[in-house]
Structure formats: structure tokens, C-alpha cells
Amino acid sequence: MINMAIIKEIHFSRTKSFGDYENVRIGAVAEVVYPKTEDNVLVDLKEWVDAKISEEVSKPVVEMKTEELKQLEGYVAERREALKALEAEIKAKRGELDRCIEVGMRSLFVTLGPYKEVRLSCGHSFRCEFSQHEKGQTAWCAKCGNYVEVAKIVDTVTGKEYDKL
Ligand SMILES: [Zn+2]
After folding, report:
1. pLDDT, position 64
2. How far is the CA of 113 from the centre of ligand 1 (A)?
3. Which pTM does this prediction carry?
4. Ligand 1 mean position to 158 CA, how many Å?
């Protein structure tokens, strides 16, 4: 190749468009030094420029992903707070429900259980449904360990008084 010009250096540059009127242009110049040939140097330049370009291209993607991640973390934290509030609400409702059940059970007990009360002259009383008690009779008070008088027989639901039960 006698008539061919001697290539002393090689320029290589590439432009990468981001699609939104933005682009990045990266170029480099390398000297051709023996034993490297022009082709070798061009390959090296291309490799270097391409690597730099992909770094530039991935930068906004990384920034975008970081921003997205930050937003996601914010969303997760928000949801976690909402969940905590919900759990507290459920706990409160459960307590409320427990109290309702307790009240319900109590009134059920009053309705279904013995609700007629035999009140004794000593101040003690006991509940029973069907027994042989009469106002004024003598009855055994287990609490006093003594015989006392039946003072009143009362229906605890209606408040009605009986002479006999
Ligand atoms: Zn008593």
C-alpha cells in the first residue's frame, strides 16, 4: 500500500438519542501506535465509546428507578400505617363486640336462667324457678347458717312480687 495515506490517529463518536429531543454524543480520538493497526484502534475506540454511551443511557433509567422505588417505599409505608390503623380499629371493634356478647349473654341468662328471687329477712337472697317458698315462711339461709324469714319473692325481670313461688 505505497500510495495510501498514513493514518496517524482515529476519531470515533456516536450519538445516542433518548427519544424526547435529548441526546448524548460521545467521541474519542486515539493515536495509531505500532503494533496496533488502524482497525485495532477503531475496534478499541468503538468499544470504549459504546461503553460510555450505555453508561450515559442507563443513568436516567437508574435515576428513574430510584425515584420509583422511593415512591413505592412511601406507598408501602403509607399502607403499613393504614393497616396499623385498621388493626387498631378491628381491636376496638372486637372489644366492643365482646362487650355486646357479654351483655347479650347476661340478658340471655336473665331470660333463660332463674330470675325469681327469694329475699330473706337477713338481707340475703337466692334465685330459683320452681320451689316451695311462701312469703312469711321460715327458710334456711346458707350464708347466715340460720333460719330466717322469707321477706319477699320478686320477679327480677318484671319487678312483680309474689306471695308464693
Ligand atoms: Zn342470711
Report:
1. 86
2. 22
3. 0.40
4. 24
| Residues, CB within 5 angstroms of ligand 1 (ion) | 122, 124, 141, 143-144
Q: How far is CA 97 from CA 17, 87, 108, 110, in A?
A: 64, 15, 16, 20
Q: ∠140-146-148 over CA atoms, to 5°?
A: 60
* Structure confidence by residue, pLDDT tens digits, 55-85: 888 887 788 889 999 999 999 999 999 999 9
Question: Which three-class secondary structure state does DSSP give residue 152?
Answer: strand
C-alpha cell at 56: 450515559
Per the CB < 8 A criterion, the answer to whether 9 and 32 are in contact is yes
Distance of CA 149 from the midpoint of ligand 1 (Å): 9
Q: Work out the widest C-alpha separation in the chain, in whole angstroms.
A: 145
The per-residue pLDDT for 3 is 65
Residue 110 pLDDT grade (very low, low, confident, very high; cuts 50, 70, 90) = low
| 3-state secondary structure (DSSP) of residue 84 | helix
User: Contact, 150 vs 161, CB < 8 A?
Assistant: no
Give 150's strand partners: 120
**Average model confidence (pLDDT) across the chain:** 88
Q: Using an 8 Å Cβ cutoff, are 142 and 128 in contact?
A: no
**How is the chain split into domains, by residue range?**
7-112, 114-162
